[in-house]
Amino acid sequence: MSAAIPLADIEAARERLGDRIHRTPVTGSRTLSEALGRPVTLKLELFQRTGSFKPRGALNEMLLLDEATRAEGVVGVSGGNFAQGLAYAGATLGVETTIIMPRSAAATSVAATRGYGAAVEMVDTIAEAFERGEQMAAAGRAYLHPFAGERMMAGNGTVGLEIVEQVPDLTDLFVSIGGGGLMAGVASAVKALRPDVRVWGVETEGAHSMRLAIDAGEIVRMEVTSIATTLGSPWVVERTLAAAGELLEDVVLVSDTQAVAGIRLLAERQKLITEPAAACTIAAAQSMAGRLGDHVVLLICGGNVSIADISGWFERFGV
How many CB atoms lie within 10 A of CB 18? Predict the structure, then answer.
């Protein structure tokens, strides 16, 4: 049985989401095109509602809940972006949401999540947040996992539909991996429509649970140490691990320093403020330049980061 999300489910998600989300733009990058020796296009999902791709999956999953479940409210776990996406979905559909977040989450993300009307519960680590979410699910609350649900992946996959339509001649796509829900959805859509396109996963060192799982052949739990907290799932799940094995060319690791260098490049040359989880795709594409085809697309998945954080990273990493 294929690990890919069925194309019909992704297309149905797009119809379901309608105008509740943006069809985000694409733009070319002369700087990156010159550096890689081929056209490079950026898919600007940081301009999605809440500043990342997360509302796509959150809304799709919430829309598919029955009315009785919605009336009881939902709970989620997040290091930042899913918190805002789920909170936005709850506000849009009138569903009470509770988000459990680790204390490492950016203050701006916590404030934005509360700003959408969600209740926020803080715990020490992301692992504890997942444990708390499971406890609340066992007590009867609907638990919307940030990356494991097929409905979540199908919603995320709508990004892939847009990429194929907007850049029909793409040959290679780079997409970041946290728990793998974005990768699984996007890669499923792209490979269904364009089997010849090569999809590359990207992780930062210290948030590389997918790379560990692929190498071990099984789920591996890790302590997240990367600054890319929105990639900071301490483990992946069987479905996303299987999707990676079936749909990806490879999973490329980059350092936090390289991710921060990508933030600087996008800020100075593209006038985009991005988070490490998005900017890491630049270094990954550069490292694979000799193996790439005629047109590269980088999925810039989010931009929820503060100027204070960026300034601190520039100083810390000497970028």
Answer: 9
Q: For the segment 40-75, what is each residue's pLDDT rounded down to a tens digit? A: 999 999 999 999 999 999 999 999 999 999 999 999
Contact 99, 119 (CB under 8 A): yes
SS3 90: helix
Would you call 152 helix, strand, or coil by DSSP? helix
Sorted by where each begins, the domain ranges of the chain are 7-53+154-317, 55-150
pTM: 0.96
Distance CA 236, CA 40 (A): 29
Helices (H) and strands (E) in the chain, counts: 15, 10
Residue carrying structure tokens 């020796």: 37
* Best CA proximity match to 161, nearest among 310, 14, 6: 14
CATH topology of domain 7-53+154-317: Rossmann fold (3.40.50)
What torsion do the CA atoms of 267, 268, 269, 274 make, to the nearest 10 degrees? -10
Neighbours of 266 (CB within 10 A): 25
